[in-house]
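can u pls check wat happens w/ S-adenosyl-L-homocysteine
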Amino acid sequence: MKLKNLEMALEKLDTFERPRADLEQYQTPAPVAARLLFHALMQGDIEGRSVLDLGCGTGVLACGAALLGAARVTGLDIDAGAIQVAEANAARCGVTATFITGDVNDLTHPLDGPFDTVIMNPPFGAQQKYADRPFIDRALREGTVIYGIFNRGSLPFIQSYCEGRATIESVVAAAFPIKKTFAFHKERIREIPVEIVLLRRIKA
Ligand code: SAH
């Protein structure tokens, strides 16, 4: 599948019915999702791989990974409503993925891992400071390589937070357009500069 076709398929997916500000529910726009997924595909981390989408929301990244030929895809999100949308989105794409409702912090929740690849657009911590940390921790526990979307400027933090646990292998800059979603948003649309960061777990 070509990048453009993937983008078009992801563009058609349903979004959050009632997005929650406290969970920082912003669906990854199709061009950014396709960018992340193609980057991972080119590195050999999608096709034929087991893939986990942490904080999958409406399943944009999970569906995209399945469309690009992942061997199996699992998505985890705390919001049961979003999981329902993700299931419908997968059906619409004609792909199979397992979606689980659960908290990323809850290690008792079985996720049918380990996984080759984790993909995630975690909360950036705008509403709740450090909200991205449990995502990094869980990703390093479940997967070998992690592709995550972070606020631009997060690299020094990621580097020190992952010290001894993972190395940063590549960083791709992107712009994440956010449409006015919540009452506290002042502008109709705002472009947030982000980075797609590839982390590789250091073998224990
Ligand atoms: N990955 C999706 C959604 C990104 S928004 C996409 O790319 O479009 C961040 C997601 O993290 C939301 O769906 C939110 O419900 C989820 N989330 C926030 N805190 C969580 C937690 N503690 N455990 C699991 N999911 C969580």
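The beta strands are 50-54, 72-77, 98-101, 115-120, 143-151, 166-179, 189-201.
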